[in-house]
Specification:
Blueprint: H1 3-24, H2 30-46, H3 50-57
Length: 66
């Protein structure tokens, strides 16, 4: 997997887990869902993604997987 696919997978997982937590525990978890969505939006506009930077420092390859 490359950096982009890992970022999408983790963001999607965070959103699904926070929605489950909001349903079963507390609706306050929806703030975390909003945070993840806002981070994805600003990343699309600016190209700055903290998680991608961390993954690249860990040695995960960037670029297309095809």
């Amino acid at each position: 997997m490359n950096v982009d696919r890992i970022v999408f997978a983790v963001a999607g997982s965070f959103i699904l887990v926070s929605l489950l937590l909001a349903h079963y525990h507390s609706e306050m978890w929806l703030w975390f869902t909003a945070f993840v969505g806002a981070n994805l939006f600003q990343s699309a506009l600016t190209g700055f993604c903290p998680m991608a930077i961390i993954l690249k420092k860990l040695g995960i390859k960037s670029g297309c997987a095809f």
